[in-house]
Amino acid sequence: MSKKTLIIGAGGVGNVVAFKCAMNEATFGAITLASRTVSKCEVIASNIKQRTGVTIATATVDADRVDELIKLIEKCNADIVINVALPYQDLTIMEACIATGVDYLDTANYEHPDTAKFEYKEQWAKDDAFKEAGVMGLLGSGFDPGVTNLFCAYAQKHYFDEIHTIDILDCNGGDHGYPFATNFNPEINLREVSAKGRYWQEGKWIETEPMEIMQVWDYPQIGKKDSYLLYHEEMESLVKHIKGLKRIRFFMTFGQSYLTHLKCLENVGMLGIKEVEHKGMKIVPMEFLATLLPDPASLGERTVGKTNIGIYAKGIKDGKEKTVYIYQVSDHQKCYDEVMSQAVSYTTGVPAMIGAKLMLEGRWQGQGVFNIEEFDPDPFMEELNQQGLPWQVEFL
Ligand code: NDP
Predict the structure, then answer these.
(1) What percent of the chain has pLDDT over 90?
(2) Which of 28, 184, 302, 352 is least surrounded by CB atoms within 10 angstroms?
(3) What's the whole-number mean pLDDT along residues 102-117?
């Protein structure tokens, strides 16, 4: 029987997910794309029709409201909900999936709008409710989190007896030509990069000042880049699931111009997430800044260059020390040519589609809430090669 797929969120990532699901129509069946602003879904649906010939349905939904979500899920008779709205909507969409008995997938962990802190706590707490409802929730099926978790699981399965250290290395060597813009949702992005850094060592989290630790990494196909230590959510689940781990860190590249803009914006209070009074109105500075910045979905056409995201793992195999680097390189313009999005949205949307594909095809099954590295990485790694994200491995 043909499946029914509901995608929520019609931003940069939602566009890629909708395109790639349509390109795998045999698995995804009848596809509905829903968002707060239905006109955004209609533009995507029209582009998909023009480029692939596939018709997808559109709908409007406020995903902060569980009642609206339940109605929509029931109307679509969905077999799976792919959540690519914002992290603020994770819990309400999970609630609606529990209520309707439908599988759930997302790409970013829950964040409370008033506290810039990523944590799996509240999503993991829904494990029993997912089990009782007999449904599966797959958390973090983007690139990082997502593919980076699977690179670690793949390394653990095929290359190591024990992994001792992991560095996750995220490089965007792309240029969109604007003095300052973010490659995905500005609010989520700026909250992430302006927060304190954190890494895990010998069972403890160690906090750093924002951008305090910098290392230069040489990224294949891009070159040497300043890379800054940040906290990133996949580390929270990887420390639970990777055997013998002693340290895990996450690094992301930033250019000097980006950092100078960020510092100025922070110094004048534009990164604030608490309401301030402005001419009798209440505004949140970060939300106002997000309104001024270019829409990430509009960067696709003008972005050139490549991304390279991977993991650098050191450990032991058959009593000998070993170092393995697994990475994936994407070209912004190639992504745009295929699905009208730059590589940051592409590298997130393709893994979201692949996770959902494995669930719908029954290749990844379970009841409860799971992080992606809890499943066999092999079918996902094969799909990456087939669906536009070929990866490489180097033994160093
Ligand atoms: P965008 O801001 O481009 O898009 C978000 C979409 O969500 C918008 O279309 C918006 O709708 C919709 N939305 C927001 N609030 C609601 C709501 N209450 N109800 C319904 N729809 C809503 O973000 P991106 O596409 O760049 O990112 C999407 C997700 O992907 C985010 O959670 C982000 O954190 C995650 N991500 C994950 C990555 C990974 O590698 N794991 C990397 C990059 C992003 P409207 O426009 O109608 O208001």
Answers:
(1) 89
(2) 302
(3) 89
Comparing C-alpha atoms, which of 239, 212, 242 is closest to residue 227? 212
pTM over 0.85: yes
pLDDT in tens, 30-70: 999 999 999 999 999 999 999 999 999 999 999 999 999 99
If you take atom 26 of ligand 1, which residue's CA is the nearest one? 184
Cα(142) to ligand 1 centroid in Å equals 12
Residues framing ligand 1 (Cβ under 6 A)? 9-14, 35-37, 40, 61-64, 84-87, 89, 107-108, 142-146, 184-185, 188, 296-297, 345, 348
Mutate to test the pocket of ligand 1, among 62, 93, 187, 348 (most ligand atoms within 8 A of CB): 348
Distance CA 72, CA 93 (A): 11
Q: Is the pLDDT of residue 117 over 80?
A: no
- Cβ contact 78:32 at 8 Å: yes
- To 5 degrees, how large is the angle CA 209–CA 246–CA 142? 70
Which ligand 1 atom sits nearest the alpha carbon of residue 65? Answer: 18
d(CA 292, CA 261): 14
Ligand 1 center to 85 CA (angstroms): 4
- How many angstroms separate the alpha carbon of residue 87 from the centre of ligand 1? 8
DSSP assignment of 48-115 equals HHHHH----EEEE--TT-HHHHHHHHHHHT-SEEEE-S-GGGHHHHHHHHHHHT-EEEESS--B-TTS
171 CA to centre of ligand 1 in angstroms:
21
* Mean pLDDT estimate for the chain: 95
Which pLDDT tens digit goes with each residue over 182-218?
888 888 888 888 889 999 999 999 999 999 999 999 9
